[in-house]
Amino acid sequence: MEETTGVLKEGFLVKRGHIVHNWKVRWFVLLQDKLLYYKLEGGKKESSPKGRILLDGCTITCPCLEYENRPLLIKLKTKTNTDYFLECCSREERDSWALDITGAIHAGHPVQVQELHRMKNSFKLLENISLHHIVDKMRDSSTGIKLTLNVEQGNRYKETFTGSALVDWLISNSFAVSRFEAVTLASMLMEENFTKPVGARSTGAMRYSDLSEQFLDDSTALYMFAETSKKMLSSKEELQFNISELSGTIVKQGYLVKQGHKRKNWKVRKFVLRADPAFLHYYDPTKEENRPVGGFSLRGCLVSALEDNGVPTGVKGNVQGNLFKIITKNDIHYYIQASSKAERTQWIEAIKPLT
């Protein structure tokens, strides 16, 4: 057994394979000097780790935009030049992992930690920066910002990007060193009419008189290049899932383990809870496309925690506990496993008011 005292953080991350570059979900445990990762077998974490990443001399890149369909990556390069790509389920989660890993890497070097905090809050935009140059780079078909179809309040906007995606892109392309700096730059792009807000969230922020509050570093605020606004709304064919299901406000998202309906095997899925309309969708985090593999309306659902003594009826396999069950209006039973009692409670409390 590997020594796991002094756990700084733990949770599911999606990891790129070394030999075959496929993506697999692993349970990661951050210790002072290393990151351990475990495989999930059945519904349980295996007792010994599948691998470890030694943090001494590691460099971390975050945001890392090397995979355009995986915008929430952290890249670690070890002392021996091995690259690890780890994907998180949300921007907040990614930034929190990056901060904790960075802290662990530099734990022995307090000066570097101070330097890091200074840099995070620093503000020095590149001298004589050309906004035209940035926009040309943003429009580059291979390295530019990825334009996607986004949905807000039932409207579909083609060729848009989110505020946080632009901030990530500006940092990743060395136009800014901190998010604060990137937001200022993004505001300048907007002020000079290179980009414009679309949708209620980002347009609403324009009402603030203070320039620094007009651009939102937010994954629900949408923007586009100023001259593409003609063909904003897209055709119906592009989405297989009913558009209204995915148009609600995201209330909560995270990785949970779900029991399959047919084969009863346990798989890690990224769950996204939306309100107005109230739906719970789940995605396969190992796949590139951002389309749900399943989901259901929460209206009329029953949600309850399952006791941890013994295996409840309907549950197969050797599970770790922290289970809860959702029964839909059509009497379909979903068995879901959280990674702690607290996480289970948070999910149940978030779902209940929407049923």
TrEMBL record:
Subcellular location: Cell projection, Lamellipodium membrane; Cytoplasm, Cytoskeleton
Name assigned to this protein: Pleckstrin-2
SMART domains in UniProt: DEP, PH
Keywords assigned: Acetylation, Cell membrane, Cell projection, Cytoplasm, Cytoskeleton, Membrane, Phosphoprotein, Repeat
Domain DEP intervals: 141-227
Gene3D superfamilies according to UniProt: Pleckstrin-homology domain (PH domain)/Phosphotyrosine-binding domain (PTB), Winged helix-like DNA-binding domain superfamily/Winged helix DNA-binding domain
Membrane topology according to the record: Peripheral membrane protein
One Gene Ontology cellular component: cytoskeleton
A Pfam family that the UniProt record links to this protein: PH
Domain of life according to the entry: Eukaryota
Statement: the UniProt record of this protein carries the keyword Cytoplasm: yes
Organism of this sequence: Callipepla squamata (Scaled quail)
Domain PH per the UniProt entry, residue ranges: 6-106, 249-355
One GO BP: actin cytoskeleton organization
